[in-house]
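Researcher: I'm preparing a figure for a lab meeting and need a structural model of a single chain. I don't have an experimental structure, so a prediction will have to do for now. The sequence is pasted below. Please return the structure as tokens so I can convert it later.
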Amino acid sequence: MTDYPSAGHRSLGRREPSQLPDVLERVLDKGIVIAGDIQINLLDIELLTVKLRLLVASADKAREMGIDWWENDPFLKRGRNGNGLEDRLLRLEEAAGLERASDKE
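Model: Understood. Here is the structure written out token by token.
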């Protein structure tokens, strides 16, 4: 009778199994690119083309590659006093007639 390794002990060319944190650390450290194209044609007429490009990397690795769009995105920038999102939340709470969390205490 042949003994097969159990699902938990399979190795993919390594002596110990990879753990999820190890895989995530490697992907974020090195980066990974996933690319794909979707085309919809009707009678040899191209109706729609969708090009997908996905980059998964840490923010530091992305900066090394010259990708830093989030640093100049006005939606993500803070307001003049540094609390843009907090100010917006307070205005929305006031418009909805909700109490502030600090007022409840």
